[in-house]
Every structure is written in structure tokens, then in C-alpha cells.
Amino acid sequence: MDLIPFFQWLENTPGSIYIRESLIFYPLVETTHVLALCLFLGLIAMLDLRLTGLGLRDIPVSQVAGRFLPWALCGFALMAVSGVLLFYSGPLKAAANIFFRVKMVLILLTGVNALIFHYTIYKRVVSWDAHPSPPARAKLAGVLSLMLWSGVVICGRMQAYNWFQK
Amino acid sequence: MQPLFQWFEATLIGTVVRESLWLFPVIQCIHLLALALLGGAVLAVDLRLLGLGLLDQPVDRLARQVQPWLTRSLLVIIGTGIPMFLSEAIKCYFSPPFFYKMTFLLLAIIFTYTIRRRVTAGGFPQAQKLTAIVSLALWFGVGFSGRWIAFY
Q1: What residue numbers bound the domain in which A90 lies?
Q2: How many structural domains is chain A composed of?
Q3: Which of A136, A151, B19, B103 has the most crowded CB, counting CB atoms within 10 A?
Q4: Any domain includes A3
């Protein structure tokens, strides 16, 4: 599947040109992307710290998950919308960037990790909810989430540097 | 104040970071990760003060659990922010967003470790919502103006 012609077409649409060339809108979208990161990843990290047993140890896991995930999802929606707009402003450049490609793969992996956690060990959360130190499977999910999301942030930041570009 | 910023730029740390190809990006990544963590630590408690978020726990208990992560992430942010600033101090000197950011940061730190700390410990219960709004506004100002240093 060759996406290049599609990206070429996308890059020449008026919306893409507008975002790319605007002096206010582009920085605003990027700022939204970074600030939504605090809402999204910040609260996900709080849950992950709880899962690893490193933080919020006296608060039941189900409370942290139940109360923070709706807010984190709002943050994710903001990240997705602003992220799509940033990609739309220069699809060819992004698609050719190794950091962007790795970032997309890592985001997929965070989803896989979250789904596995949700449908396995979290199903039995009642039996370990209040334990300061959750079972190894839950800790692993927390560590993996922290590492994968850190990788996503690092790739996102490094995308600006165009290293390893042909 | 310009000679002071020139001196900052000429410091050893500033020079090393500026002349390295990878140091600045690496520091930037750590800065950004700590920012996300700080955001989570601030939001976790501020949402609760607003009557949202983790309502199952009393404010003081939640704040006690979250506080160490707020302080840790803030230390990392400052620890990575200083070398980045030193490496491009003169650019910062001519950047209005930089001065906005530093003002917001100073106010946010003072507010967090004085009034907000008192309120999250259980003082002035009638001021909880206002405290959260001021806290969120100040940190928003830090993050927002921080991003704009790159543009103006």
C-alpha cells in the first residue's frame, strides 16, 4: 500500500497549507498537544505509579483507575485531535521521519498493553485493590505503560530534529 | 541585565550543552516527561479540590500521597530547565514568553508550597475551589508560555 500519493495530495489541501504557514494557529495546536499531555499522560502516570506500588499506595487501585481514566481519556481526545492536525500540516515530512514511525508503533503497543491489563489481572482487582503493592502482573503492566509512553513522548519530541533523515 | 545573560550563556554548562548535538534534545525529553508527571500530580489534587476526580478520598489524604511526586517532578523540571536556559540564555533574554514563563513559575511554586499546601492539609475549606483554579491557571501559564519560547 503506497500512501505517498495520498500524503502528497493531503499536503496540498488548503487546510494543510493554512496550518503550516500560520504564525498563531500552528503554535496553538502544538501547545494544546503539549498541555493535553499533562492531562493525559500525567494522570495515566499516576495510575501506573499506583500499579507499580511506587505511589498513591494507600488509595485503592480501582479508585485511581475509575476516577482518573475518564479525565485521561479527555486528554487523549485532545492529544489525538491536535496530533492529527499537526500531522495534517506536514504529512510527507512526518511520514518520512523515523521518530514519527516508531512513535506510532509505540502508541499501538501501549494500547495492547492496556487491553491485556484490563481483560486479565484487572478483572480480579477486588482481590488486590487495597494492597499497597499490587501483584507482579499489574506491576509489569504499570512499568510497561510508563516505559512505552515515555518512548512515545521522546519520539514525539525528537521528531523535530529530523535526525537520520535521508 | 543583558551582561548577566551573556555570562549565563558563557558558563561551562551552557557551552557544553550548546556545543553538543544530542545533549539539548535529551534534556528536553526529560524536561517534557517531568512536565507530564507534574501535570498529573497537580491535576490529581486540583480536580479533587474542585469536587471532581478522586472523590473517594479526603483531600488531605490524597494530597499527602501525591505531594512527593509533585516535588520530585518539579525538581527534575528545574534541574533540566537550568542547563537548557544556560545553553541559550541570550535567546531567552530576547524572548517575551521566557519572562512570562519564569514569572508564572515563580508564582506557581510560591502558591503551591504556601497557600495550596495549607488548603490541601485541610485549612480554609471554603477556599478549595478558588485554590484549585488559581493553581491550574498558574501552571497553565507556565506550560503555555514555555511552549512559545520556541516561537517568539
Answers
A1: 15-161
A2: 1
A3: A151
A4: no
pTM of the model: 0.93
Over residues B32-60, the pLDDT tens digits come to 999 999 999 999 999 999 999 999 999 99
B53 contact A CB<8A:
yes
For residue A87, being part of any structural domain is answered with yes
In chain B, what's the furthest Cα-to-Cα distance? 54
pLDDT of A28-66, one tens digit each? 999 999 999 999 999 999 999 999 999 999 999 999 999
Complete DSSP assignment for chain B: -HHHHHHHHHSHHHHHHHH-SSHHHHHHHHHHHHHHHHHHHHHHHHHHHTT-S-TTS-HHHHHHHHHHHHHHHHHHHHHHHHHHHHHTHHHHHT-HHHHHHHHHHHHHHHHIIIIIHHHHTT--GGGHHHHHHHHHHHHHHHHHHHHHTTT-
Say which of A35, A71, A150 has its CB closest to residue B140. A35
| Distance of residue B53 Cα from the nearest chain A Cα, in angstroms | 5
Complex ipTM value: 0.92
Interface of A with B (CB under 8 A): 23, 27, 30-31, 34-35, 37-39, 41-46, 49, 55-60, 63-64, 67-68, 71, 150, 153-154, 157-158, 161
Cα dihedral A120/A123/A124/A130 (nearest 10): 110
Q: Is the pLDDT of residue B152 over 90?
A: no
